[in-house]
Amino acid sequence: MNKIVFSNQVNHVSTMLVVIDIDRAVDFYRSMFGFEVRRYEKGIIALVQFKNLQLYFIPASPPTNDKPDIDLVHLNSIGKTSASIVFNVSDCEDVYNQLLDKGLKFQTPPQIPSWGGKRCFAIDPDGYLIEIEQDT
Questions:
Q1: Which end of the chain is more exposed for a tag (fewer CB within 10 A), N or C?
Q2: Comparing C-alpha atoms, which of 38, 16, 4 is closest to residue 82?
Q3: Which residues contact 95 (CB under 8 A, 6 or more apart)?
Q4: Do domains 13-60 and 81-136 have the same CATH topology?
């Protein structure tokens, strides 16, 4: 098996989400999940972190010299998204109830999928899917 050459140089792995309103996204992830703001430039970019998960929020990013053929845009619509954020937890029911008490609206109460475990889903203000998942 080949060793990954750059692995000893990676500090963090982050996900960048295109959002309609950066402030709203930051407020949602801070108040619901306890993310800490690591970087914030009003209307331009925000970086939030919870444990080892980092999320960048940007309004959009047109093609640039270093990515000339790529346009990062918000493509979510009602019932359709391009990304899911998965929180693997030890007790899905407990986390569900805590977040419900904070005002998070879930698609359904926790369910047991055919492969086991337990999970439930919510939608963030920009239409990204949030999964609360408990392994078997």
A1: N
A2: 16
A3: 87, 89, 132
A4: yes
Q: Pick one of 3.10.180.10, 3.40.50.10280, 3.40.50.10420, 3.40.980.10 as the CATH number of 13-60.
A: 3.10.180.10
Say which amino acid occupies 31: S
Name the residue ranges covered by the structural domains of the chain. 13-60, 81-136
Phi, psi of 134 (to 5 degrees): -120, 125
User: pTM for this one?
Assistant: 0.90
What does the pLDDT profile of the chain (136 residues) look like in tens digits?
A: 667 777 778 888 899 999 999 999 999 999 999 999 999 999 999 999 999 999 999 999 999 999 999 999 999 999 999 999 999 999 999 999 999 999 999 999 999 999 999 999 999 999 999 999 999 7
Sequence-ordered strand ranges (E) for the chain: 14-18, 36-41, 45-50, 53-58, 84-89, 118-123, 129-134
Which residue do the tokens 């998960």 mark? 53
Q: How far apart are CA 74 and CA 83, in angstroms?
A: 11
What is the C-alpha separation between 96 and 98, in angstroms, rounded?
6
